[in-house]
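Box 3.1 A note on notation
Throughout this textbook, protein chains are presented in two layers. The first layer is the amino acid sequence; the second is a token string describing backbone geometry. Keep the layers aligned when reading.
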Amino acid sequence: MMMTGRFCEPMPDFDTLKKTDPPGSVAEAIARLMDILDEGTKRAIAGQEETDLIDFHFGLGQAIRNAWLWKGNSPLLSDCGVSHPDDASLVIIRGLWTALRTSGPIR
């Protein structure tokens, strides 16, 4: 896991995301990220305020875009309800953030 960004944002190894077929929905993308990300990264994401999620644009967001969205993954992009991969990655990150905050304590 590399650290990048203003808040030492954790960035998953791009190869880890790239090794799987792109998810077909936001829910599937969130489930995969929950499996891939380590507990420290999950805590860091869950601990952010919603207004600060944009800070994940160049780390986690970039990994999501490069592995799953720039390849023309229309089902995932469509499920995000937006037309641009930059916006779609934030939809996925916001969904992940919500899931982490509602799933109970992270060990």
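Residues 85-102 form the longest helix (18 residues). The radius of gyration is 13 Å.
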